[in-house]
Design brief:
heterodimer; A: alpha/beta; FAD/NAD(P)-binding domain; about 25% strand; B: alpha/beta; 2 domains; 5-stranded mixed β-sheet; binds flavin-adenine dinucleotide; binds iron/sulfur cluster
Chain lengths: ~650, ~280
């Protein structure tokens, strides 16, 4: 005989103001199989949970229905309370009478009526619930960190310093990401390289970190605690074990005119190169597309120069399979290409540059050794104009969102310019100044008050060249009049966008992304560093535009999640998994294809002499995520989902 | 030599040489216009084979009879293009090994019977592609269009009237080569999603389930339609579903033996964000 307890929560006013909980409790008390039906102001509170536990013990309840908020909120809370009272937690269900009822209805009588339907249908389901035991799976204690920017480096170091193994995969020849390109950093103006390079070296030398640069993720299979990852090691054409990083080959390489990606096109590099002088590892790669030998079959000067015989033109990509238990995605961002704003002349006028290019000009290791010289003729610009939100907050041409860091780095650029070009004039067109953060507003005020940056609130409509000047026409909306400035250089604060391959890559690792390609967190407020896939975490600007402090904080947060995961030998998984009835399965194997987690295998049923009697589908409970896709697909109705069995769902529907 | 004779000769050769263990074809029926399936396993019997414009039943369903192919021996079968497509689907759904099937392909136009060249199912892919390109029309274009033009209410009452006749004999299911499940969902009674009694609700449930389970799989051979003792125009539903799947997913059932089932497969570049 079922003895179900029904616990109706007022959720303060949230439910109580719309649903007549007393009436609901009375009605449920009458329902067949219900032994207890009570109401209370906050069942999730300590006394509330205690009363549920007491009712279970006193009445020997066989099932519990808590009519309250969404199961996403408190299913775990009440299931835990039930377990503490000796009831199998999977015999507890939540009837959602808040989000699906009181919050969306205006009429009290109808809301009460609907709450009765919802609760009754859950009572009917619970009567058919089975006791379930959590599934235990082993954990591989090794983390994969994808992306060697500041976020990835921080996550790798934190995990490694706690004694766990890390594989750090970076697709470029060197660690560093964007931070390595920056000159000084807001809000303290400390030199980016000086705080970055020691981190890079520490990561490369850490005994617990295996660094794979110039490497890409080919595929990711498996599930939390047990991922298998295939990594492609792109051929560097330089043997990493023989090369000493002397750099002789780089000096001798005759292909010297290649535009440097690291310097954003403002500098040149050779075909055999390291992205920058402080690269980690300090081992060059050959850029096959621009190498004279690969193009014409003649040259090999680098190989003749190399005293270690490290150059190998026949090198091929190799693959390595790695088993890991957790993955941190730290693949960063890109800056938007501003050529879409034809009116700003980016790409047309060499002295219209973007913020990242300005970083390279201002950087001591950059193409001008830190002098602000305009790209066209190497002359020091006396008047500069910065245009903020060049792409951001522009739903028609750019992106709808705020890139978050441009207000700050533009203020920084104005300061660096003032410090380096004495007497230079700075104008900044802005929409709003968003300087929320520790020391941030003070920083931008400093640009205005001490370094005399002239902020103009308004947009720029056009930039054109006239008599060797860049003419900038815009509007000052505070004064309500148009302005025209004759500038020597224009700097666009370009929008921060997702990596161009972000969506593709998300599919490779199986995580969600938003319309822009930034990766989705499991819950924006409560689970901001977890992806929707268990065991995959997000750090840095791949999730949304971020500055360095936020990227680092998030990276350390992912490390703590990974370490928590690694703190146990076995992982407990929800037992909500599919099972197959082999007797009725027709072996069509449609479910094998339909399962998005590759959790279903083909299985032969053999007789004693080893002959195949029947071929069926078989669910691997370790891989199954309980999504139910297969259940809906199976025509012969052979698949069923524990915790949501057909019998339960049917009873739930009929209970309405 | 008529095609009937050619095929008898080929059947004789295959059977006497042991290349196939059985030939599934058409024999005389209860009257001049009816043909019934025959199963021949000795070369002496080939004279019983008939091939004319009355040979319309899709015989592919017999191939999945329990145990028939489990000895890995080959079986020959007379098939029209729809039947050949059915072989592809059955192979794609792991119900048979296409290597074991020797095809006696033919087609009927008016009362003209033509032979289709080929033995293995792959050899017919050009023919199948050309059918797909030709965008097959509904059996009764006029009635089909009339229903298309109806308002949802009118259409509902049209089908309500038709389904009211259904006696749940499941002849349509038995006749369909794609209805090979050992236990059909309608026979599952824990819980009983589909009402077994033949009242309007149960009849609707059954016919809608049937339509869904066959969308993207039905080859429009007409077996079900002909089998229905109360003449429900099942062909119209089948055709509508086939059109739907072709339009939405560019999926034409049975183009190859490795074709992925349309409702079980998804593409990684699918823009639907709910699929990870
Ligand atoms: C012009 C400009 C000025 C800035 N100034 C400041 C400042 O002054 N102060 C401040 O706090 N912040 C500043 N920032 C922001 C700062 O650059 C970012 O916060 C920081 O770089 C984010 O780090 P990250 O590791 O998340 O991403 P990234 O630095 O972009 O690193 C990502 C790394 O992942 C690698 N990667 C990408 N995809 C893959 C893949 N599929 N497989 C393997 N590896 C991959 C990339 O090659 C890269 O090395 C500035 C940004 C810009 C554009
Ligand atoms: S879909 Fe159903 S019938 Fe087909 S293999 Fe899977 S479980 Fe078996
Ligand atoms: S419920 Fe079915 S489709 Fe979903 S993960 Fe499990 S086996 Fe795969
Ligand atoms: S549903 Fe009917 S027409 Fe379609 S394949 Fe089955 S028997 Fe043939
Ligand atoms: S053959 Fe006709 S009567 Fe019989 S179950 Fe099918 S639709 Fe109903």
């Amino acid at each position: 005989m079922a003895k179900i307890g029904v616990f109706i929560c007022h959720c303060g006013e949230n439910i109580g103001a719309k649903v007549d909980c007393t009436k609901l409790a009375a009605a449920m008390g009458e329902h067949p199989g219900v032994a207890v039906s009570v109401e209370y102001k906050y069942f999730c509170s300590d006394p509330g949970q205690e009363s549920v536990k007491r009712a279970i013990r006193d009445n020997n309840l066989t099932g519990v229905v808590v009519a309250a908020c969404s199961p996403r909120m408190h299913e775990a809370t009440f299931r835990k309370a039930c377990a503490e009272a000796g009831l199998n937690p999977y015999l507890c269900e939540i009837a959602n009478i808040r989000e699906q009822c009181s919050w969306v209805h205006t009429d009290n009588d109808q809301a009460t009526e609907k709450a009765m339907d919802i609760t009754r249908s859950m009572v009917e389901k619970v009567k058919r619930n089975n006791k379930l035991q959590p599934i235990e799976v082993p954990v591989t204690r090794r983390a994969l960190v994808i992306g060697g920017g500041i976020a990835g480096i921080q996550a790798a170091l934190d995990i490694a310093n706690a004694g766990q193994d890390v594989v750090l995969v970076e697709r470029e020849p060197s660690l560093g990401g964007h931070m390595a390109q920056l000159s000084e950093t807001f809000p303290t103006l400390d030199c980016s390289q000086c705080i970055m390079t020691p981190r890079m070296v520490e990561a490369a030398q850490h005994p617990k970190i295996r660094l794979l640069t110039y490497a890409e993720i080919e595929s990711v299979d498996g599930y939390i605690g047990n991922f298998s990852v295939r990594v492609r090691m792109k051929s560097r054409y330089v043997d990493i074990n023989k090369c000493t990083g002397c750099g002789d080959c780089i000096t001798k390489c005759p292909a010297k005119k290649i535009s440097s990606e690291f310097d954003c096109g403002l500098g040149k590099r050779t075909a055999i190169y390291t992205p920058f002088a402080q690269s980690v590892p300090n081992i060059p790669v050959i850029d096959k597309a621009n190498c004279i030998y690969f193009k014409n079959g003649k040259c090999k000067i680098c190989s003749k120069t190399c005293q270690c015989d490290a150059i190998d033109f026949d090198m091929q990509d190799t693959f390595e399979d790695i088993e890991v238990g957790a993955i941190v995605v730290a693949t960063g961002f890109q800056v938007q290409n501003n050529t879409m704003y034809g009116e700003y002349g980016y790409g047309k006028y060499p002295d219209v540059i973007n913020g990242l290019q300005f970083e390279r000009l201002a950087s001591a290791s950059g193409p001008t050794a830190g002098k602000i010289l305009r790209p066209s003729d190497g002359v020091e610009p006396q008047t500069v104009v910065f245009i903020q939100c060049a792409g951001s907050r522009d739903p028609s041409k750019g992106v709808r969102y705020c890139s978050k860091i441009c207000c700050m780095y533009t203020a920084k650029h104005a300061m660096l310019y003032a410090h380096k070009v004495h007497g230079g004039k700075t104008h900044i067109f802005y929409m709003d100044i968003r300087a929320a953060g520790k020391g941030y507003d003070e920083f931008s005020r400093r640009a205005i008050e001490e370094d005399e940056a002239a902020y103009l609130r308004g947009r720029v409509s056009k930039v054109w060249e006239e008599n060797g000047k860049l003419m900038v026409r815009g509007v000052d909306t505070l004064l309500g009049r148009p302005v025209e400035i004759a500038a020597d250089m224009v700097i666009l604060a370009t929008a921060i966008i997702a990596q161009p391959d972000a969506k593709e890559f998300a599919k490779t690792i199986g995580i969600g992304y938003d319309e822009y390609g930034f990766y989705n967190e499991a819950h924006l407020k409560l689970r901001p560093v977890e992806s929707s896939t268990a065991g995959v975490f997000l750090a840095g600007a791949c999730q949304s535009p971020k500055d360095i402090p936020d990227s680092v904080a998030q990276a350390s947060a992912t490390a703590s999640k990974v370490l928590a995961l690694f703190s146990k030998d076995m992982l407990e998984r929800e037992p909500v998994v599919a099972t197959n009835n082999e007797a009725t399965c027709a072996g069509c194997w449609g479910c094998v294809l339909a399962c998005p987690y590759n959790a279903i295998e083909q299985k032969d049923i053999l007789d004693r002499s080893g002959r195949i009697i029947k071929r069926v589908a078989s669910v691997n409970p370790g891989l199954c995520q309980g999504c139910g896709t297969c259940v809906t697909f199976c025509r012969s109705n052979s698949l069923d989902l524990a915790g949501f069995t057909e019998r339960q769902i049917f009873a739930e529907v009929m209970g309405l | 030599m008529s095609i009937e004779e050619q095929y008898r000769t080929r059947a004789k050769e295959l059977l006497s040489g042991g290349a196939v263990k059985m030939v599934i074809g058409y024999g005389k029926g209860s009257n001049a216009k009816r043909r019934r399936p025959i199963f021949i396993s000795s070369a002496d019997e080939v004279e019983r084979l008939v091939l004319d414009d009355a040979c319309i039943t899709n015989l592919s369903g017999y191939l999945v009879s329990e145990g028939l192919l489990s000895d890995e021996k080959r079986v020959a079968v007379f098939l029209r293009p729809e039947g050949i497509r059915a072989i592809n689907i059955l192979a794609a759904e792991s119900q048979l090994d296409a290597e074991q099937i020797v095809i006696f392909g033919f087609d009927v136009a008016g009362n003209e019977v033509t032979a289709l060249k080929g033995i293995n199912v792959e050899e017919f892919s050009d023919i199948i592609d050309s059918i797909k390109e030709g965008a097959p029309e509904a059996a009764e274009e006029e009635l089909f269009e009339k229903i298309e033009k109806m308002s949802p209410q009118e259409r509902f009452s049209f089908w309500q009237k038709e389904f009211a006749k259904c006696i749940k004999c499941y002849a349509c299911r038995q006749a369909c080569p794609m209805c090979y499940c050992r236990r059909c969902i309608v026979d599952s009674n824990q819980p009983q999603w589909v009402n077994t009694s033949s009242h309007t609700l149960g009849n609707f449930e059954w016919n809608i389930v049937r339509a869904f389970h066959l969308s993207g799989r039905c080859v429009e051979c007409g077996n079900c339609d002909r089998a229905c003792p109360v003449n429900i125009p099942l062909r119209l539903i089948n055709h509508r579903m086939a059109e739907e799947v072709l339009g939405a997913f560019d999926h034409f059932a049975g183009t190859s033996k490795t074709q992925e089932p349309v409702l079980a497969s998804f593409k990684k570049d699918d823009s639907e964000t709910f699929i990870l």
